[in-house]
Design a protein that fits this description.
Elements lengths: L9 H27 L5 H100 L3 H8 L5 H13 L3 H14 L6 H14 L3 H14 L6 H14 L3 H11 L8 H16 L15 H11 L11
Length: 319
């Protein structure tokens, strides 16, 4: 900010000018007197001199008061300028702090959205699981274990149980196949094939076009079986499931994870994932429904972060 400054010798200049004016008046009066032929008496001259002196003193007093007011105004202006500069500095600092806090809030909201989306998927799968388990419990209450095995054709041996479940899935009897896979999970919770069985459960949902439940099952594998050989399968079908739901940003995140060496995906999976990325990247709204959603993709990022914290798997299944 700028303000006008005043020269310290200004009052003296005004006094000099006032004195000059008075002398000029006296001179004119003196000349006028001679021009009329009248001579000014000494008493008149002294009175005139006193008046001039009084006028000079009044002028000097007014000039001094004016100078004091100007100096006071300049000091107030300087103080006001300093306060304005300080306020502007505080304002700039506050704006910068607000910007940093808003970035933190947006990041927290994005993470929360990712966690919420994944929880919704797991909840959908768990809800279906509870309904199916409740049906099995009600059925068991009506008959003995042997009659139940005969009526529902649940084999007793591990190999036979898994083979029968696979046969039903191949015959597209997905609900019955899923029931046997669930039975296998319950009977052999620590089995080495458990991750593969969970993936097959997810596939039954996927084949029924229940993509949310399928995604919930695949995400369980990413969380609980990070070093399993079926991890690339879970990542790839997660990408397909999200694409089916129109959530292309999440889908592309999972397909990109296939290309990461940490997942141990085979070349066929990487080629298929690259092809899917190209298709979705070129889409203009026929598949993708999230192109205008700035917050989309959080669920995919969260799932990929879980998957990357792994060692490469020994082998992968055929697509």
């Amino acid at each position: 900010m700028h303000h006008t400054s005043f020269a310290p010798g200004r009052s003296k200049t005004r006094s000099s000018r006032s004195a000059s004016c008075v002398l000029a008046i006296v001179s004119l009066t003196f000349l006028s007197t001679f021009s009329t032929g009248c001579l000014t008496l000494k008493s008149q001259h002294d009175e005139l001199a006193n008046q001039v002196a009084a006028l000079e003193r009044a002028q000097d007093s007014e000039s001094a008061q004016l100078d004091d007011k100007i100096i006071e105004a300049e000091q107030r202006l300087a103080d006001l300028t300093a306060k304005i500069d300080e306020a502007e500095q505080h304002l700039r600092g506050s704006q910068a702090g607000i910007g940093v806090r808003m970035d933190d809030v947006e990041e927290q909201v994005r993470e929360l959205r990712g966690a919420t989306d994944q929880s919704s998927l797991v909840s959908s799968s768990t809800s279906n699981q509870l309904v199916e388990l409740q049906g099995a419990i009600d059925e068991r209450l009506g008959a003995l274990e042997r009659k139940l095995d005969e009526a529902t054709n649940i084999p007793e041996g591990k190999t036979q149980l898994l083979a029968e479940a696979d046969r039903l899935a191949k015959d597209k009897s997905f609900k019955n196949a899923r029931r046997l896979y669930r039975t296998y999970e319950a009977r052999y919770p620590g089995d080495a094939s458990l991750a593969s069985v969970k993936f097959k459960i997810g596939q039954t949902f996927y084949n029924e076009r229940d993509y949310k439940s399928a995604l919930g099952e695949f995400y369980k594998i990413i969380q609980e079986h990070k070093e399993s050989a079926v991890l690339p399968d879970a990542l790839y079908y997660s990408g397909l499931g999200f694409a089916r739901l129109g959530q292309c940003k999440n889908a592309i995140a999972y397909f990109n994870a296939i290309l990461d060496p940490a997942t141990g995906a085979a070349a066929k999976y990487k080629s298929a994932a690259t092809n899917q990325i190209n298709i979705l990247s070129k889409d203009r709204g026929e598949i993708c429904l999230d192109s205008d959603d700035l917050g989309a993709g959080a669920a995919g990022e969260r799932g990929v972060d879980k998957a990357k914290d792994t060692k490469p798997a020994a082998k992968t299944r055929k697509i």
